[in-house]
Design brief:
The complex is a heterodimer. By secondary structure, chain A is mainly α. Chain A contains 17 helices and 2 strands. Chain A is globular and about 90 Å long. Chain B is α+β, with helices and mostly antiparallel strands. Chain B has a single domain, classed as Alpha-Beta Plaits. The chains are: A mainly alpha, B alpha+beta.
Chain lengths: ~550, ~110
């Protein structure tokens, strides 16, 4: 009985839908009919049913007929006006840019997974849950910190965001006057993404800038892995995302004083950094350096006479997959930094990015083979990342052969830097973050100052003409890059050295020796990365001759 | 009755197992072990730093056999477990006082 009722109801519903559909189609055919046809339809001979039989809608498999004049909203279809058409063109232009920027931001967001895998793969199994968790929590921590005030400090005075609609609501910058020029220091609008910046262009910018910031926040977790206290890490995450990254970011991308070096002092286009070799990678790498110095090396990393001991990572396949995820995410990182899908320079940017990554990986592999006889997978991965970091600043400004050259140099540089930092400076960096991001971040912006070919970047940072490097005739551009690099190092290193020292005195940065020997998973996280294979207490790392494990 | 403990290269486990079965050994116990001999392990490099691998992974095979099978069993272990390079391992032979099958309580060669 019930079923019958349901069937009845269904057939009734179907009938209504069909009837509505037919009426709808009828009205459409009616509108398209010529007046003559209309007249003939009105004659009594033509049965209404015959005229109502519409042509079946034809699918459009090639897409040639999809998107026509009918899709342009106009008041009078017969007489579209130029302003109406222009409005649609403008809307579409900005829509392409916003979709492009958001999509690239999504790719960059996924780089967090790459970082998590690289760092965890290069460290030991007993710390897997801890290393993974740091890479996981930088996302929510960084996001919230950036939402509270980071974005406002970085982009609060960056308007107008021309490619994203340019409503110009981000228009408040704090600046001081030095040498008779305004030095823009940080933005002061956009806190909590409040009602005054409730704007699609601003929200697009927030998403895109946020994932870049998060890349920076996650870099030191690698260099400080396997010994960093969770509570200290939490405070660090907010400090980086709320203050240090946004302030340096403002100086370069938010219309700050480094960007203005060109307009104010005639130094090329000011400090140019296309996608963040300095803003993102060098800031992260230098913070990693300060953190690793304050934290000290892992137990067992150095023998009594100061010789570094290798502590192999537990999962090289994981690290290699993570490297590929990062290389893939970089297609959002660099090409997305046009903030414009209509800027077809994205083709050059994307291709240069992949070329440099290949150069970096090849050079690191060949270097290791020549020096040690074997390629060393961890250095191949570091080499590819080094190439990507280095090309991040110059990717839009250099030719393809130069992109390969920049990558090759970065691949060798990363090997030399890893040995120097570990062997000579005695700083323990388990994953090579300082060398990959810090050293090659600096190399990236400097290489832009050397090799920018003067083909792109007209009007960059408010300076007419295109961005041109030292080897193409503009030595002042290189000088601006040098100033930006030195500023980045001094500002970030001093800030984080003091920050970690103060934090050390208040809550401590390092876990107990006992926790470190047992692995941080249990004591710090309360869960093991691999509970079925948990190493026996006290095991899990080589303690070579001459290294005595300190008694807790 | 004798007990043979053979420390062999892990990748030769299958060859040694088959060879022992072929001469009539009906049961064995296998464990993954680590150790070193006269070469005291070896050094490897990771990211440019050397580290010493002191305890190399090996496989230990334990078999209990009647005296009559001893020489034959040793012969096939030496044949199947040998590469001729350092690190092939060792064979230890001990006398067994008694063997007891838990299920039935049988003792001696009947329990093998």
């Amino acid at each position: 009985m019930r079923r019958k009722k349901k069937a009845l109801f269904l057939s009734f519903g179907l009938g209504v839908v069909l009837a509505l559909g037919v009426t709808g189609l009828r009205s459409i055919t009616h509108a398209q009919e010529s007046p003559a046809a209309e007249a003939s339809a009105a004659t009594p001979e033509a049965a209404p049913a015959a005229t109502a039989a519409p042509a079946e809608p034809v699918p459009d498999p090639t897409g040639e007929n999809t998107g026509t004049a009918a899709d342009v909203p106009v008041k009078d279809a017969a007489n579209p006006t130029l302003p109406e058409v222009m409005a649609t063109v403008g809307h579409n232009k900005i829509a392409i840019n916003i979709v492009w920027t958001l999509f690239c931001g999504f790719l960059v967001m996924f780089m967090q997974a790459g970082f998590a895998m690289v760092e965890t793969g290069f460290t030991r199994a007993k710390n897997a849950a801890h290393t993974m968790s740091m890479n996981f929590m930088v996302y929510p921590i960084g996001l919230l910190g950036y939402w509270i005030c980071g974005f406002a400090f970085q982009m609060g005075g960056a308007s107008p965001l021309a490619t994203l609609g340019g409503t110009g609501v981000l228009n408040s910058e704090f600046s001081i006057t030095l040498f008779g020029k305004a030095f823009d220091l940080f933005g002061t609008k956009g806190f909590f993404l409040g009602p005054d910046v409730y704007d699609v262009g601003v929200f697009t910018m927030f998403l895109f800038q946020m994932v870049f910031m998060d890349t920076t926040v996650t870099i030191p977790t690698g260099a400080m892995a396997e010994r960093w206290k969770w509570s200290s890490f939490l405070v660090y995450g907010f400090f980086m995302s709320m203050f240090i990254y946004p302030i340096f970011g403002n100086w370069v991308w938010g219309g700050g004083w480094l960007a203005d070096l060109g307009a104010n002092f005639g130094l090329g286009h000011g400090h140019v950094d296309f996608a963040g070799s300095s803003v993102v990678h060098m800031v992260g790498g230098v913070a990693a350096l300060a953190g690793a110095i304050v934290l000290g090396p892992r137990l067992g990393k150095y023998t009594k006479d100061g010789k570094p001991v290798a502590i192999p990572g537990h999962h090289i396949p994981m690290a290699i997959v993570g490297t590929f995820i990062l290389a893939f995410g970089w297609f959002g990182f660099n090409p997305g930094s046009t903030l414009s899908g209509g800027d077809l320079r994205i083709a050059v940017v994307a291709t240069n990015t992949m070329l440099a990554s290949a150069g970096g990986a090849m050079a690191a592999m060949v270097y290791m083979m020549l020096r040690f006889g074997k390629p060393d997978p961890s250095m191949m991965a570091n080499g590819m990342l080094a190439g990507l970091v280095a090309i991040t600043a110059p990717c839009a400004f250099v030719t393809a052969p130069v992109a390969v050259l920049i990558g090759v140099i970065s691949g060798i540089l990363v090997c030399l830097s890893v040995f120097f930092i570990e062997g000579k400076l005695k700083i323990d960096d388990p994953v090579g973050a300082i060398s990959v991001h810090g050293v090659n971040g600096a190399w990236g912006v400097l290489s832009l100052g050397l090799f920018a070919d003067g083909k792109y970047g007209d009007g960059w940072n408010g300076v007419p003409g295109r961005v041109t490097g030292l080897f193409y005739g503009d030595g002042k551009q290189f000088l601006a890059e040098c100033i930006g690099t030195i500023t980045c190092f001094v500002f970030v290193f001093v800030s984080f050295y003091l920050f970690f020292k103060v934090l050390d005195a208040i809550i401590g940065n390092r876990v107990s020796a006992e926790a470190e020997m047992n692995g941080l998973d249990g004591p710090e996280m309360g869960a093991h990365g691999y509970p079925e294979f948990a190493p026996a207490a006290g095991a899990g790392g080589p303690f070579p001759e001459g290294v005595t494990a300190p008694t807790p | 009755m004798k007990k043979i403990e053979s420390i062999i290269r892990p990748h030769l486990l299958d060859a040694v197992k088959t060879a022992l079965q072929d001469v009539g050994v009906v049961g064995m116990t296998v464990s993954e072990v680590k150790g070193f001999g006269r070469q005291k392990g070896h050094t490897e490099t990771y990211r440019g730093s050397e580290y010493k691998v002191e305890f190399l992974p090996k496989v230990k095979i334990e078999v209990a056999i009647p005296d009559a099978l001893l020489e034959q069993a040793i012969e096939v272990i030496l044949k199947a477990g040998k590469t001729g390079k350092f690190g092939d391992g060792k064979v230890f032979v001990t006398s067994l006082e008694d063997v007891i099958r838990i299920r039935t309580g049988e003792r001696g060669e009947a329990a093998l």
